[in-house]
Design brief:
The protein is mainly alpha-helical. Helices cover 76% and strands 4% of the residues. The protein has helices spanning 21-48, 52-81, 84-129, and strands spanning 3-5, 10-12. It holds the Pfam family DUF5362.
Length: 136
Amino acid sequence: MDVNASEDQITLQNISVLQGELLSDTVSNMASDMKFYAIFYLIVGIFYCFTIFGALYGIPLIIYCIKLKDSADQYREFVRDKDFTLLLEAMENQRKFFFFNKIVIIIGILFTLLYVLLIFWFGSALFFDMPSRSFA
């Protein structure tokens, strides 16, 4: 598919790809999977909100899961209507969901490293303090 992109318009040279059964099936299956993930993470976000500290993660998770569900709906509407504004909105909502996931993964890695460093620090403090203790 040839795509000529300008700042304000995207022109597709070969539109027959959009009318193919394979594209419709693929987008429909992808939208179905996206909706499943959105509902699953929405439930997880609700459970996180039961605690105060969990709400710090749960509320944004719920918001971005709604964006993922909206994206799935917009992909389905795009296949039905062939409206490229729906495709752009679907991609934008999906991008926001993945950006949120990227931030959460980076924060999770940083907290894991901090946890390992604290365990090492406390463990080494106990280990090096052992000879000075007397048990008698």
